Write a sequence for this structure.
């Protein structure tokens, strides 16, 4: 039977044009009505290093970037040899045979070589080393039976802002590579069933977070560039004029978050973004937002730690850091989106929660979720904005209590300049007016009362958040527990396991603080349990144990900097059942 999906890997070094080649193929797939998911595994050096982009595409929804590849485009001899081991049986390698001379003895017997003599193909067009990428991509388009005109459209869009001659050369190269492939390369049995009347939107998680913040009414974003959160700053900066958002890059993360707190205090919905090291610097100011009950959304796109750690690799190691952000107890929400679409909806929800309960809300993404490209369904642009209780003037003869004791812990909020609402908002503990109680006499009764007021919010926050639901049979032999970006890969693994008659269900947890009590109840009814986490210490499993008393039986941890593959989860589950 013809294959209905394809996995492509482009392997080379930084500076070889891997990202542009992968993004071009992603656009070709998108404009062919195909679903796709792409992951870029790159290093922190500007040029050189072991880099690859892997993209999986087909007519059905794609949940991971796959494992063994069908086609490898190798851009240099070293990456040819390094990546060929990941080509599956019957797969092929496209390469510039002028540069790469394979050692036949090292080639797996079931891998097909597809040499492209680039100099010969381009003899009537002109020599340029980077043109080998266009030759290989156009050859792949032919081998997959995709429309050459779609690729030409992508090329025209990409080079349209550059010199016309550059675009025309690439269009000629595109056709030359396609024609050579048609006449000289073997045939492959793929039927991706493209639909050229359908274009699927493609976003990264960071683009979804940025776009969602605009729809949520965010008016101030500040950040210091830190991989993998930097592209949020890039996107919002590029679109600041059309969105009306003030975007600031400050000298460090301490300045960044204090600017955002000041902006939010003045009445503008505000957000900051960073990774683990920058989040550590923000920690003290998060407590300031908690003490002054100032709404704020904080994105921590996690990478491997500690310290500088793995700047360009993924991990889920900052959960406890987010839970313990700043000193003392105060209400906060920690939420981990699971998909690109979920990034969009989660940031809108985060702003509403922050305003409604006057708290900091921490969004935990990670490098994989933040940076990978994925086709998505249409998004709902009719987001509802809930600013919570904001008073326009005080009618109680100037007796305004900013931190008034209330049943749900949420006090009437006023923006600076509102008549009759003068109050203090300091980092010190205070009474319901905002008057400091930590200098001359720390009144134990007031301290207890104001602490209880703030913490009462957590009960009502938890009631606002939807509880997690078990996916699959209630009577499964094994329950797999996950959080954050692992949702899709676990979902795909379980679907494959079901075709093998393995009775497995899935509990995915989005809201980490507060943690729903239903989680313990669901797991207590499970026959056996396995948690899948991208960290060394099993932070989610420990959190579940701390909050519910339930101890998960089995663990699958990964902390090598790369995301999970379906096969890793399948192998673990089959070893348990």
């Amino acid at each position: 039977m013809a294959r209905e999906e394809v996995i492509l890997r482009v392997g080379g070094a930084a500076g070889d044009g891997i990202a542009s080649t992968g993004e071009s193929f992603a656009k070709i797939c998108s404009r062919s009505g195909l679903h796709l998911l792409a992951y870029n595994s790159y290093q922190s050096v500007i040029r050189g290093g072991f880099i690859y982009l892997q993209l999986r595409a087909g007519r059905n929804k794609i949940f991971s970037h796959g494992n063994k590849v069908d086609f490898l485009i190798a851009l240099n001899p070293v990456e040819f040899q390094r990546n060929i081991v990941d080509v599956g049986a019957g797969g092929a390698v496209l390469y510039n045979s002028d540069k790469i001379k394979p050692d036949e003895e090292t080639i797996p017997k079931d891998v097909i070589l597809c040499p492209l003599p680039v100099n010969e193909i381009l003899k009537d067009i002109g020599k340029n080393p980077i043109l080998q990428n266009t030759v290989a991509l156009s050859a792949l388009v032919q081998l997959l039976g995709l429309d050459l005109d779609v690729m030409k459209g992508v090329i025209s869009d990409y080079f349209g802002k550059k010199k016309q001659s550059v675009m025309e050369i690439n269009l000629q190269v595109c056709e030359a590579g396609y024609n050579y492939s048609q006449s000289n390369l073997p045939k492959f049995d793929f039927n991706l069933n493209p639909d050229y009347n359908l274009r699927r939107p493609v976003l990264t998680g960071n683009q979804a977070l940025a776009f969602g913040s605009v729809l949520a009414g965010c008016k101030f974003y500040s950040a210091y560039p830190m991989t993998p959160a930097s592209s949020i700053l890039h996107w919002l900066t590029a679109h600041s004029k059309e969105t009306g958002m003030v975007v600031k890059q400050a000298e460090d993360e301490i300045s960044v978050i204090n600017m955002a707190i000041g902006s939010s205090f003045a009445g503008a919905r505000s957000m900051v973004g960073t990774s683990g090291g920058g989040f550590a610097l923000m920690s003290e100011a998060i407590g300031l937002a908690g003490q002054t009950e100032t709404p704020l959304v904080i994105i921590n796109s996690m990478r491997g730690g500690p310290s500088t750690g793995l700047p360009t690799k993924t991990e889920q190691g900052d959960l406890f850091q987010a839970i313990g952000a700043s000193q003392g107890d105060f209400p906060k929400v920690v939420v981990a989106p699971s998909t690109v679409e979920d990034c969009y909806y989660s940031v809108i929800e985060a702003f509403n929660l922050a305003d409604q309960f006057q708290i900091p809300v921490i969004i935990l993404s990670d490098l994989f979720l933040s940076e990978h490209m994925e086709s998505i369904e249409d998004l709902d642009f009719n987001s509802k904005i809930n600013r919570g209780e904001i008073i326009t003037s005080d009618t109680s003869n100037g007796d305004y209590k900013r931190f008034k004791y209330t049943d749900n812990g949420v006090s009437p909020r006023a923006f600076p300049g509102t008549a009759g609402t003068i109050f203090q908002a300091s980092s010190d503990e205070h009474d319901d007016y905002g008057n400091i109680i930590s200098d001359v006499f720390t009144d134990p009764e007031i301290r207890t009362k104001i602490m209880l007021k703030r913490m009462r919010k957590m009960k009502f926050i938890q009631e606002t958040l939807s509880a997690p639901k078990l996916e699959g049979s209630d009577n499964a032999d094994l329950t797999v527990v996950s959080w954050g970006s692992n949702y899709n890969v676990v979902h795909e693994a379980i679907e494959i396991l079901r075709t093998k008659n393995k009775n497995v269900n899935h509990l995915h947890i989005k809201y980490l603080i507060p943690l729903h009590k239903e989680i313990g109840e669901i797991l207590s009814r499970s026959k056996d349990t396995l948690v899948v986490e991208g960290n060394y210490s099993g932070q989610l499993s420990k959190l579940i144990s701390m909050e519910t008393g339930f101890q998960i039986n089995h663990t699958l941890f990964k902390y090598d900097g790369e995301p999970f593959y379906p096969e890793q989860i399948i192998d673990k589950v089959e070893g348990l059942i």
Remarks:
- The chain has a mean pLDDT of 95.
- Residues 295 and 359 are 5 Å apart (CA to CA).
- The radius of gyration is 27 Å.
